[in-house]
Amino acid sequence: MKKVIIILAIIVVILLTALGLWYITKPEPEEVVDEPEVQEEVKEYTEEEKLALKVDEKMKDMTLREKIGQMLIVSYSGTEYNDELDTLLKDVKPGGFILFSDNISTYQNTTEYIKNVKNTASIPMIIGIDQEGGRVQRIKALADANVITIPSMLEVGRTNDEEISYKVGKILASEIASFGVNLDFAPVLDVFSNPNNTVIGDRAFGVDYQSVVKMSLPFAHGMQEENIIPVYKHFPGHGDTAADSHVELPVVNKTKEELYQNELIPFKNAIDDGAQAIMVAHIALPNVTGNYLPATLSKEVITDILRNELKFDGVVITDAINMGALANNYNLEEICEYSINAGADCLLMPKNPVETVNTIEKLINENRISEEKINEAVTRILKLKYKNKLDEERTLDYNNIGKQENIDVINSI
Question: 3-class SS at 385?
Fold first, then answer.
């Protein structure tokens, strides 16, 4: 019995010794550390990226016909907003509307007219006008306000005073903005180099490109100060012509090199200055293009020179497609096919907007115009609209018309 007890004691000692050794050598439990929460990084978008996203979202929601409509800037005769106009705008859904003197009556009627035009659209509309000064002043038709008479741009140019030009642009823009206009087909960048040129003449800032550059850009800056989009015209230069493109096709026999030494310089400066919209003229340049296609229908002029060489990425607007230089020489299918494939984004003043939409849709279905071309054009148009906040309500102020301080500036010229 004594031996059994001794053996058990030995076993207990061995077990206790082994347990002690295990306890001493056992690994320490890993300390549980609370991991900090990983917050998902919030991307900060630049204004340019936000604009692109907004345009992309809108593009996804648009039908093909709606996109085609955005490429048209339409007109309508008369001062009364009527059922015919309402139906036209709702059927076509145009990207813009251009006002003429015969749309303007009293201030209240005109602002109401523009408001009704805008209200037909789910996408903000361009409300454009030809208000250059001199002999092109549409709002002079206003019946119940003292609209300021703006001198011709040639008179403004002769002051050789950039500050004066800036103020004139600002005054002109403040008056048209008071109606709800947001875009002006001005300034004229043509160089008045041909004394027989009656269609441009005193609409130009000068007889040499230096004067045109010096005086046109401040004028445009003044317009932008009043939230009016300037449309620089008439690319690639309508100054050295004798024929009137409203009636017939003017021909400029200069080479590309000669254009780069004169006519194209004001446009290059405007593009470098941030131009967002340029109007292309109905003029033929056979020594540049090798044919008599008007610039508005020419890929060599719009895509090769304006887009690729001068690096313009804004909106290209044709001069009015109902003008004689086009309408007397080309049918609607040809005008739409050639101009869009050439790189034009907006077709100004189609004679029949509904037929024009149908024609462009037909050309797409026949693979004569690609949908990619349409998408590129509409992307640029929407970018122009949203960048300039045309979707935001603007305050219209009748008191901006005929301000004495502005009259004093004009009288000093």
Answer: helix
Buried b (16+ CB within 10 A) or exposed e, 209-241: bebbbbbbbbbbbbbbebbbbbbbbbbbbbbbb
What are the φ/ψ torsions at residue 251 (nearest 5 degrees)? -120, 130
Outline where 1-106 has alpha helix (H). 2-25, 47-60, 64-70, 83-92
The pair of three-digit structure tokens given for residue 20, joined into one six-digit string: 């002690």
Q: Work out the angle at residue 287's Cα, subtended by the Cα atoms of residues 260 and 257, and round it to the nearest 5 degrees.
A: 20
Tally the domains of the chain.
Answer: 1
Measured distance CA(290)–CA(284) in Å, rounded:
10
Q: How far is the first Cα of the chain from the last one, in angstroms, to the nearest whole number?
A: 135
C-alpha gyration radius of the chain: 33
CATH number, position 332: 3.20.20.300
CA distance 48 to 383: 10
Spatial CA neighbour of 136 closest among 148, 120, 152 = 152
Q: Is pLDDT at 14 greater than 80 in this prediction?
A: no
Residue 193 forms part of a structural domain = yes
Residue 402: pLDDT band with limits 50, 70, 90: very high
Compute CA 113 distance to the chain's CA centroid, rounded to the nearest angstrom: 23
- Identify whether 1 is part of a domain: no
- Supply the range of the domain harboring residue 266: 62-411
Instruction: Return the amino acid letter for 230.
Output: P
Within-domain flag for 288: yes
In this prediction, residues 70-83 reach a mean pLDDT of: 97
Q: What is the pTM of this model?
A: 0.88
Sole residue written with tokens 């996408």: 123
Amino acid at position 305, single letter: I
Q: Which helix (H) or strand (E) holds 299?
A: helix 299-299
Decide if 389 is inside a domain.
yes
Q: Are 203 and 136 in contact (CB under 8 A)?
A: yes
What is 178-227 written as a DSSP string?
TTT--EE---B------TT-TTTGGGSS-SSHHHHHHHHHHHHHHHHHTT
Strands (E), 42-179: 72-74, 96-99, 126-129, 131-133, 136-137
Q: Where are the alpha helices (DSSP H) in 249-289?
A: 256-260, 264-272, 286-289
The tokens describing 127, both together, are 């409300």
Average pLDDT, the chain: 91
